[in-house]
Model the fold of this input.
Amino acid sequence: MRCRYLAIVILSFVFRVPAVGQSAAAETHLGRADQLYLSGDYSGAREEYLKIINSGYESAALYYNAGNSCYKLGQIPSAILFYERALLISPRDEDIRFNLNLANQLVIDKINPVSEFFVKRWIKSLASSASINAWAILSLIVFIVLAGVLVILYATHGFKYRQALITAGTLMILIWITSLIFTVMQDQRINHGNYAIVFAPSITAKSSPDNGGTDLFVLHEGLKIKIADQVGTWIRIRLADGNEAWIPSSTVEKI
Amino acid sequence: MNKLSHIALTLFLAILAYPVNLTAQDKIELTVEAPKVVTLGEVFRLSYTLNAKAENFNGPKIEGFLFNGPMLSTSMSTQIINGQVRQSASYTYNYTLQASQEGTFTIPSASATYKNKTYSCNPVKIEVLKGKAGNQQQNTQPSTNSEIVSSEDLFVRIETDRNQVYKGEQISVVIKIYSRVNLSRLGEMKFPSYSGFWNQEIPTSGQVNLERVNYNGRAYNMGIIRKSILVPQQTGTIVIDPFEIECFVNVQSKRQRSPFDDIFGDSFFGSYETVTKKISSPKVEIHVKPFPEIQPEGFTGAVGTFAITSGLDKTEVKTNEAVTLKVNIKGKGNIKLIELPQFRFPADMEVYDPKIADHIESGEGGISGSKTFEYLIVPRHAGTFEIPAWSFSYFDPSSATYKTFNSGPLKLTVTKGENDSEATVISTPGKEDIRVIGQDIRFIKTGDGKLKSTGRQFFGSAGFYFSYILIILLLLFALGYFKYQFKNQNDIEGTRYRKAIAVSRKQLGKARMFLDAGKHEMFLEALLKGLWGYLSDKFNLELSVLNRDSVTELLVSKGVAESIIHDLISNIDSAEYLRYAPPSGEADFRTLLEQSENMIVQLEKLYRR
Done:
């Protein structure tokens, strides 16, 4: 009896679920927002989506829909920001990628990204093929099985499939390590990616974090940049082509 | 003059010797010429001209004028162009009239008969005004201060047909010169720039012909210098700059008049001189009103009155046959500025750039004409197509309303051409790329709202680490448990193994005691127990599975020397034998005991930990 209580406590601790009532309220908001979008009232739909986001909820579809309504209103930087946020949650969603691509075509700046080594690209895409939680849970499950195998190997001496079990265990260690690495990679990408979207219609990037710095290049709204460093109200940005410069942090919005 | 006409006549007669093609003569007409406005007492000429010799001329009944005539004068001309001889003659009947009273008089029509046909002309209206003494009758009463040309006697005006217009509405503008002086010629002119207007000049002969008109109750010689059509391009009040002109006027010279002047008149003795006078017109203001605010769809700034037709030349065609969509806009207004109609053609049709033809005339009444747009359409696929309705709106200034023309949807039925299908099947597989007409973002994701609280993530959460720690703890616990189990088991075996020699010695000691006491059966039992027990403890085997064969097998597999195994087995055999054999000598038992003890020592040596 005590064991069962303990299990429930642990489980509820591990998989904390949001309060049901609150979630239902957010979902009615979502339905209304979708309805507004359908009727062509994009600014109304945008308000509703933002309300849900501000009340502390997120999902790829929610960000995607908010991005769509921003796009329809011609707010391209906001649309790109929402699409990027949606992509963080589900990186392989075709619709999000399509719309993001379309929105990016309206961005003035054209930057040729430095091409990545193909192995790195494969690993990244493999890591992105599942969500961070999926990788984390997979690593946990593999670890549990691995522990079981270890116990079996330890407890029995004359077991018939001992060799097969050892092979399986080795493989499982590899899977466990891989899934753990992917989890960390995903965590880095999502929580420590430090990407941002330029919101100012036009900004001049400087060589140093003050207004007296040499003008290096001009950026326009909607561009995706990486924040490399921050000094006061200035951030050092890195473009996809490897260029670096300083711009005021107020001109961008973090993804 | 008379001499000249004689010469002409002689020449004419000489040419007449030729056979002359008289049928090439122009249409016969009787025309009348007279000033429209005259001043009281003025002597003027009324002339009727017929371009053939009339058999009979019936002059008009002239009333209200003193007159003299008719006098006939003749003129002939002959043209030879490329061997074609053309001859024309005109017979003019001249009347000399003098206005004797004020008012408007009508001279009825005159008629002439030529080749039994009667030709008549229109009646003439002549207005007689009160003349200003002096100027018109210079011969009799020359003015004393004629060198001053007053602005009343010579001026220019810019006359417009209206001053309140809508933007884009046409205004007819005429620049006129009014004169009551002896104008010798016109000099340099500076035309207004007409800024704010679109300006279209109406072509004229280039010569300024003076005409008698009544202006403010006075007779003036009026000449039209230029006619233009203006179309205002902006709203508000637009000012037309003054028109400036330099005039050369003949005035009587200041020198002392000779007595001959009175007798012969001025012109004969050159007592006139030419003075230059620069005059400019007053400014003209045009008030341009904007269009009414609510503009209909399809309004692009066309102003005027238009008639529009549009349509397809065929409504049923075969594939790859050309169809023409023709739009014709005809009327009066700024037709040049009409834009290309924007039809939304079905995407599956090939539409060529439209052919635009305009025919625009600018005349007295303004700019009018027509503009035609022709679209050549080639449907490439069979089916029923509909070209959506196109509407054209224009502003009609006369009613101050917008008018809209709607073409209505145009239907076109395309059937498959006869030779078309086979040819295409052979030449191409009939597949086409889908043409992308527009691009838009994909639709939102509805339903299935798996909302999740922001920032909630399993990885890195307490739950994640807790789970790992839990699993590791469980693993350690399991491993620890099993280790304890193994240790226990190993302990039992190890004790037996280590204590095997001691147990067997004890047993053999017991056996020795039994032997000393002469209890042979007990001795043998203890001896065997000691031997078997030793083997059982040493090799961790149950006593029940021990027999000669299994022991031999075990020892062989453990690599024990053949002799030792043999001694051991023979020892056991002898002990078993002695157990059931009749009693024998004490020495046999002693040997058996000693051999068994040796046996165990030897084995122990081999298996010492």
In short: The first strand of chain B starts at residue 30 and ends at 33. The interface with chain A takes residues 439-454, 456-460, 462-464, 466-468, 470-472, 474-475, 478-479, 482-483 of chain B (CB under 8 Å). The CA atoms of residues 140 and 262 of chain B lie 8 Å apart. Chain B is about 25% helix and 40% strand.
